[in-house]
Amino acid sequence: MKFLSRQEELMLLxxxxxxxxxxxxxxxxxxxxxxxxxxxxxxVYDILDRLTRKGFVSVTVSEPVKARGGKSRRYYRIxxxxxxxxxEIRTLQDKSWAALKEAKIxxx
Length: 108
Fold this sequence. Notes:
The chain has 108 residues and is mainly alpha-helical. It has one domain: Winged helix-like DNA-binding domain superfamily/Winged helix DNA-binding domain (Arc Repressor Mutant, subunit A). It is built from four helices and two strands, in the order αααββα. Strands 1-2 form a two-stranded antiparallel sheet. α1 crosses α2. It starts with 5 loop residues before the first helix and ends with a helix.
């Protein structure tokens, strides 16, 4: 297992939340809303590119969009590998929190 960075994990979860509307601007808006932090569009695309290179995200290019001056949109979807990585990181976090809880009980 390769560990996901917190930003990569948040990005994957955001793509899952947005489903078929997962392209640059809505991703940035949703992740900013969830984290209550400003995310530049460049930071978002940097993480998306990294996730794509790792095979955790796939990209589909839309037909040109008139409202965008004829530019296409890049839609992102989580791959099977991406889902597996999210599950593995969740399992690791659950185990870590459970161990911490046990340790606190023993200290009391």
